[in-house]
Amino acid sequence: SQQGEEDPQALSIQEGENATMNCSYKTSINNLQWYRQNSGRGLVHLILIRSNEREKHSGRLRVTLDTSKKSSSLLITASRAADTASYFCATPAQKLVFGQGTRLTINP
Amino acid sequence: EAGVTQFPSHSVIEKGQTVTLRCDPISGHDNLYWYRRVMGKEIKFLLHFVKESKQDESGMPNNRFLAERTGGTYSTLKVQPAELEDSGVYFCASSQVQPARAGELFFGEGSRLTVL
């Protein structure tokens, strides 16, 4: 399967620090997507990186993709309390396949 | 423009009862997906509609689950009879372009189902 697996499962940092989450997947992809779920809410699309891209930025988010290692990372810089959420990577076939997510807690 | 809406937001039922969840996708989105997240675990795919047709229902757990999308607009997911392990959050998502073609999914807020 193309299941994304996030690492770590939980991460707790101080406000203002950077947070890095990793994702590994198993098969070939043409893109990889990151989503965020705030508690009790739906998932929100954060960023998509295509297989021919190595790095992509969006505001305080930086995503890298290493297709040779079948891995991706999501970096959130200068974290804020509002960044507290679960983060999922997802790999697509005709459907998106999600992993278990990383639960990020930003402490004030 | 309205996003994906789901109803109810929370349903509490007893084992053996029936529950029907509804999803209204974004207007014009042919692709509609149902996902489920149980007990903070991974988000699992249930099924995918393209318009009114079931494109992929490989994630449906068993025949107690029935999904429909009459007319290719809104969709319903019925659980009958509900079991304890069906508790979780059921997410609906829609997209104009499928993820394999670099389309993103737009999710609803989810319907939390609690089976007692």
Task: For the structure shown, list the relevant keywords.
heterodimer, A: 108 residues, mainly beta, 5-stranded antiparallel sheet, globular, B: 116 residues, 7-stranded mixed sheet, 4-stranded antiparallel sheet, 0% helix, 48% strand
Describe this structure in words.
The complex is a heterodimer of chains A (108) and B (116). With 108 residues, chain A is mainly beta. Chain A is 0% helix and 57% strand. Chain A is built from no helices and eleven strands. Chain A has strands spanning 5-7, 10-14, 19-24, 31-37, 43-50, 55-58, 61-66, 71-76, 85-92, 96-98, 102-107. In chain A, the strands form two sheets. In chain A, strands 2, 4, 5, 9, 10 and 11 form a six-stranded mixed sheet that branches. Chain A has a five-stranded antiparallel sheet with strand order 1-3-8-7-6, with no helix packed on it. In chain A, a hairpin with a 3-residue loop joins strand 9 (85-92) and strand 10 (96-98). The mean pLDDT of chain A is 90. Chain B has 116 residues and is mostly beta strands. Chain B is built from no helices and eleven strands. In chain B, the strands form two sheets. In chain B, strands 2, 4, 5, 6, 9, 10 and 11 form a seven-stranded mixed sheet that branches. A four-stranded antiparallel sheet of chain B has the order 1-3-8-7, with no helix packed on it. Chain B is globular, with a radius of gyration of 13 Å. The N and C termini of chain B lie far apart (37 Å). The interface between A and B is medium-sized, with 25 and 24 residues.
